[in-house]
Amino acid sequence: MKLEKTIIIILILLSFFVIISTTLDPDLGWHIKSGEWIINHQQIQHHDEFSYTMAGHQWVNHEWLVDTILYLSYHHQLWIVMTILFTIISSLPFIYYTLQSKNYPELSYILLSSIILIPYLAVRPQIISFFLFFVLYLLLQKIFQSKSSPIFTLATILLFLSWANIHAGFPAGLILFAIFIISKISQSYQTHKKIIWPAKQLAIFASSILVTFINPYTYHLYSEIYHVAASEITAKYIAEWQPILSTVRPENLIYLGLTISFTIIFFKKIK
To answer: Which pTM was predicted?
Structure first.
């Protein structure tokens, strides 16, 4: 299967590069202008500095760090660097699982998963969240082992610190962390017939939450995330917040069917 894996990896890299280099995020101009304002004023926005109808309105720019980097890349004519970087970080999860795959059904599922991501590919902060979620999953696998190096603990905490200043997708990472903890407690109860609290992992989890408050808006960042997530307008107009079946696409239906099938077939192993 080495040849097939190589072909899939090359296909994913090339197709992602072409798509990212030719697709513009609808918010790209906003990000670049925001980054320009941050550089020119040497401070982070706390109020709307651009809109006529919302001028002066309180604004939590949860993507301020990415905005700054995007502006500097654009200003110094290094956009190709951003294109390559986003191609790599969007491709790496699929490359990793392609290398880990053991049979053709797994390869097919990975390839289809990469196709599902295509409509969302561009130089955009959401792709960074997608990548950090993948990195966090790998780190949590290490942290929840019986013997884990302190480097994984530090890396996890630093990941959340960075993530909170890059994109508001970091709560998804905290939810993933909580799922690992609940699973660990459940396993200990099944084995020992009593609840054994994973003290080390809980301490790392608490530290990860605390460092997310190290951002220009402190706790207001969480308030902004809640208001956006609870808004009916968000679910109505933003594609990423809509259900997978909201748009009838054959690949979505196939992907959902395969996911359900694999979950049923390998339920005991997953459990």
So the answer is: 0.89
